[in-house]
Design brief:
Immunoglobulin-like; 517 residues; 3 domains; six-stranded mixed beta sheet; alpha+beta; 15% helix
Length: 517
């Protein structure tokens, strides 16, 4: 009897072992979950992978995989069950979450890789995500922290005098689109500078706009730099050349009244140019009547030597528009190419007397803008031909017409542009014109219109420089404005940024503007 009983017991144990083995094989071996140490950092608007995997590696194709937020297990970010992703899901992660590979060496679910991929990251995605895997006999859960960062827009620096002799300057730095709040560091070419103050404002998307300032003595420093950085190591920096601004005819002021004041002092000091002073004094009262309107309508910020980089140019070109010329708006003495992208003078138009630009030789772009951001580039140099000396590039209110009288081409009348007048320098269309000096001469000019913010910016693409930003208030539709001047051998050509940028070919035939409509 005992022998038979022992046999029965052994048989039962053997059956149990066999059954357990079958169940374990069916449900998967025992495992624990592993995740990457430390937080995962994702960029706002981009994609990120939250790594999670089993140890040892097992096939998880038949197991349940759930990614969820704290205390939201029944409203998961993603639920995988019965060999497929289920419809049960928190709405804000629908079409944004999926299972992915944590590395190129991974075999996915077959190796126990249950990593989560999130698309189009938002500020609200920052937080703790739980990775949960369950079989019939084993389960585990681990937490992964996701931090969201956003690197803001290129820094804009400008200076403003706080003393009558301009020896004390308030240098400001601003940028938008940051998350979280960035730290601010001011430096000069010699040492660190103290921060005068920093303010942050929150946008509707959760990002921060930053404005900081520092007080300097213009005689003590050559350059001032502003650094904005995140704890993740991401940063932006910009600089402004104080001495270049002081030595240029456009002083670091921000209002037309300051430009008038400085110009008056300069002219008074030039006793030998009495005629010029007399002419300027005659025009001064007429300017006073428009001063209030000028201050309200436009304000030119000059930051000549703020260095850009490839990333800045790429961001600008994301807003690129296809710009072509409208022959119906062209002056009769202009020639336009058949592709409606290049223009020059006819060669028969008589040049003006020295120092007078032919403002009437204009043609408009065929595109109109009344909102949003728009960008285009203009080539000012062609192969084997010197850089253009004469040109006018900017915007005009739709329905306006160019006049030979420069005093009529102002922001208060619906004109915003830069004009290069050869040896007379580059000047603005502001009601009180400001003359600038760029070295070398721009070979390719980038124009950025932010209609909603009321900003028109100019960039030297070849030298990676931000040349000028005009702050204004647009109303109604505006159109691109071009003028090739008189006497240059090369045309003014608008680039198609959807194709590889190449220098213009001066042998391309140009047509009379009357024949291109």
């Amino acid at each position: 009897m005992s022998s038979g009983g022992d046999f029965c017991i052994c048989s039962s144990v053997l059956c149990f072992i066999i059954l357990k083995t079958i169940l374990v094989d069916a449900a998967g071996d025992s495992f624990i979950l592993e995740v990457s140490p430390g937080p995962i950092v994702g960029q706002l608007g981009s994609s990120v992978t939250l790594p999670c995997w089993t140890s040892p590696p097992i096939n998880t194709e038949a197991l349940e995989i759930c990614w969820y937020l704290p205390e939201q297990f029944y409203f998961p970010v993603l639920l995988y069950h019965d060999g497929k992703i289920q419809e049960t899901q928190e709405e804000r992660y629908r079409n944004r979450s999926s299972l992915t590979l944590r590395s190129v060496q991974s075999n996915g679910l077959k190796d126990g890789d249950v990593s989560l991929r999130l698309e189009n990251l938002t500020i609200g995605d920052a937080g703790v995500f739980h990775c949960y895997v369950s079989g019939d006999k084993s389960y585990d859960s681990q937490a992964v922290t996701l931090n969201i960062t956003a690197v803001g827009s290129p820094l804009v620096l400008f200076s403003k005098p706080v003393s009558d002799d301009d020896t004390q300057l308030n240098v400001s730095c601003r940028s938008s689109g940051w998350f979280p709040k960035p730290s601010v560091l001011w430096k000069s070419d010699r040492t660190n500078l103290s921060t005068g103050g920093t303010s942050h404002t929150r946008a509707t998307d959760g990002t921060f706009s930053v404005q900081s300032w520092t007080l300097i003595s213009s005689s003590d420093v050559q350059q001032v730099f502003c650094h904005l950085s995140l704890s993740s190591g991401e940063e932006r920096k910009g600089g402004i050349d104080i001495q270049a601004i002081r030595s240029s005819s456009g002083s670091p002021s921000e209002g037309p009244w300051k430009v008038l004041f400085i110009l008056t002092l300069v002219i008074l000091s030039l006793l030998g140019l009495g005629f010029i002073f007399y002419k300027y004094r005659e025009k001064l009262p007429g300017k006073k009547t428009d001063k209030k309107k000028t201050d309200e309508e436009t304000n030119t910020q000059m930051t000549p030597l703020v260095v850009c980089n490839d990333e800045v140019i790429k961001k600008l070109r994301k807003h690129a528009d296809v710009i072509t010329l409208d022959p119906k708006t062209a002056h009769p003495d202009l020639k336009i190419t058949a592709d409606l992208r290049a223009v020059r003078d006819s060669g028969h138009y008589p040049p003006k007397e020295s120092g007078v630009f032919p403002y009437e030789l204009c043609v408009c772009g065929d595109q109109t803008f009344n909102s949003g951001q728009h960008y285009w580039e203009v080539e000012l140099k062609v192969k084997n031909v010197s850089t253009k000396d004469y040109w006018l590039i900017g915007l005009m209110k739709q329905g306006n017409s160019c006049s030979a009288d420069k005093s009529a081409l102002t922001p208060s009348n619906g004109f915003w542009f830069l004009c290069s007048d050869g040896p007379n320098g580059v000047h603005t269309s502001t009601d009180t014109s400001v003359t600038l000096s760029f070295s070398p001469k721009p070979q390719r000019l980038g124009v950025m219109l932010d209609y909603d913010k009321g900003q028109l910016s100019f960039y030297d693409i070849t030298e990676y420089k931000h040349l000028l930003t005009m702050n204004t208030k647009f109303s109604g539709s505006v159109v691109p404005l071009f003028n090739p001047g008189v006497g240059d051998h090369s045309p003014l050509r608008i680039l198609d940024l959807t194709e590889p940028a190449e220098a213009s070919d001066p042998t391309v035939p140009l047509l009379d503007s009357q024949n291109t409509a």
